[in-house]
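User: Could you write out the 3D structure of this protein bound to adenosine-5'-triphosphate? I've included everything you need below.
Assistant: Certainly. Input first, then the structure.
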Amino acid sequence: MSSAEPNPSADTPAKPERSLNFIEQIVEEDLRTNRWGEHVVQTRFPPEPNGYLHIGHAKSICLNFGLAKKYGGKCNLRFDDTNPTTEDTEYVESIQEDVRWVGFNWDGLYYASDYFDQLYLWGEQLIHEGLAYVDSQSAEEIAKQRGTSSEPGVASPFRNRTVAENLDLFRRMKAGEFPDGAHVLRAKLDMAETHLIMRDPVLYRIRHAHHHRTGDKWCIYPMYDFAHGQCDSIEKVTHSICTLEFETHRRLYDWCLEKLRIFPSRQYEFARMNLTYTVMSKRRLLELVKGNLVSGWDDPRMPTLCGLRRRGYTPEAIRAFCERIGVARFNSTIEMVWLEDALREDLNRRAPRVLAVLKPLKVVLTNWPAGQVDSLDAVNNPEDESAGSRKVPFSGTLYVEQDDFMETPPKQFFRLSPGREVRLRYAYLITCNEVVKDASGNIIELRCTYDPASRGGNSPDGRKVKSTLHWVSAEHALPTEVRLYDHLCRQPDPNDVPEGVDWKTTLNPNSLEVISNAMLEPSVASAAPGSKFQFERLGYFCADTVDSQPGHPVFNRAVTLRDSWAKAQKKDGG
Ligand code: ATP
Ligand code: MG
């Protein structure tokens, strides 16, 4: 290699150092004190397969896989499938697809149900050691006896069953001798504990339900608290990261691992991510899907990863967003513009530019030579010289945007109006001379002249032309459907509704606008589903992966060029 050759790595600027988040600080301290001995940093991402992943999960994915990557450790994908009635293989598959799409590969792929035999044996072990008992009260009775934070709970009348009796009942629970709800297995702790969760929590319940993996083998299923920590422990998870609502479960997590004398995984909690103008729980997203309020889990308005992907989001943008919002210990709501900005930044660098007119207004150039078609050079991406240029056909009949014309313009309007000269991007300067209307007075056509000396859009004598408009040649245009999306909900916090009012009343009735006859430059006809473009002056658009046909893509607007929502709110006096 000659010394004149550039060294690519030398040109790449070093990533700006950000300070360590609190979990990285814990990991670094553990590494410094050699807390885990020969064990590498082991994390896991543990979704319950009861819905599709959303952008909140992406944060957990980036955190768990990111930590393993950064510290030379491992991260498993583990399905937390202990609740047979809500889980499904459809979700198992979509979750794997989505984790890969975000950009990570798991080391081990596991299911909590892989460990059902072991978990059952651990149930027996606790019984043997006098640490668990079978309670034959109903769920309501048990709940009533739990007490409050100021009042101790009441002991179950079954609390002092003998080991033999407990073992016999637990085995018969497993054998299917009892109906749902007849008995539960409970830990024997202390009904006066200040932590309510520690007042003899339920460990196993009877549920005669078909499981998506274990079929009908089991009719008893472990509770989250009797499964999660043990699964972590079996997989030698060193840092088990979950969201803050599990903070109160940590003592029980530790208790289980300690009493069972197994690998001492540690649980750490971080704040759930919320985003403005959307909801983020699978339960609520499922409500939208089931109620046909959206077209499916992958509706481009959904905050699901498959919805964002279909909308035109890139994994790079999602990862940059997750990195930017950081990891905190207090709950917060992130402004939607942060997510949108991450996409704008990514697509600004990478998306080819094209000309498209969403609401076409016909322009006839009265001095254009009949039948002539020009082939004009258009830059593909001003941010990326290597993207090159392309040819765009130009002729005597064009479309421009209806919004770019006003018959009687206000002072600040510099776009097309009678007598005004504007530049057509990459093309010519044109002047509007005549407005043609139909019988009911609607503007149907503008008659303009072009300046042949202005080819390329240059002003030949340096005369001032303020506006540059996008356009499409009418006879070459590709007519197609374009969907414009707006926020799913009208208010920043859809959960902020008066008591008794359904959060769904906050849904934005204008979250989808379908434009059936947008006109696109012809080069876009061959766009592969999923490919992304900047429609100049309009925003970033993605060829829909579901409805596009070969030679005929349908487009979704992924994001506008700027945050138009904030501007509109301000204008409305909001
Ligand atoms: P949901 O309430 O949306 O159903 P969940 O917490 O029940 O979410 P799980 O499938 O149990 O969903 O989540 C898998 C992992 O992703 C968990 O570790 C969970 O803490 C994390 N997670 C879920 N939602 C968020 C969020 N909004 N922000 C950060 N992490 C999240
Ligand atoms: Mg859950």
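Residues 55-70 form the longest helix (16 residues).
User: Perfect, thank you.
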